[in-house]
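Section 5: illustrative case.
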């Protein structure tokens, strides 16, 4: 059975990490990230926070439109019977002569 020294393993992991940071692979990773970020910036994207804010505004607007539509239907329902009586021309009234 092998006995591993945890300090030796930590030192080895630290050296491997430093070697990777100093390697060209790290530079390639940075370049790819920069390339992706610049490509995404050219797209007309919005942040998640802005999207969520606009979604909430849209929801409130939609609810308000629905309330206004219901109110309009109610008002149209009230005025419909009255308008059927006034659909025929009303003869002018003649004031009594004094």
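Designed sequence:
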């Amino acid at each position: 059975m092998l006995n591993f020294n945890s300090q030796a393993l930590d030192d080895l992991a630290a050296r491997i990490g430093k070697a990777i940071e100093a390697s060209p692979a790290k530079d390639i990773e940075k370049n790819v990230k920069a390339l992706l970020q610049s490509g995404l910036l050219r797209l007309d994207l919005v942040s998640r926070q802005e999207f969520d804010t606009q979604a909430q505004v849209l929801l409130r607007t939609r609810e308000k439109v629905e309330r206004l539509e219901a109110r309009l239907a109610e008002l149209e329902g009230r005025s419909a019977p009255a308008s059927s009586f006034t659909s025929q021309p009303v003869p002018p009234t003649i004031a009594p002569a004094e």
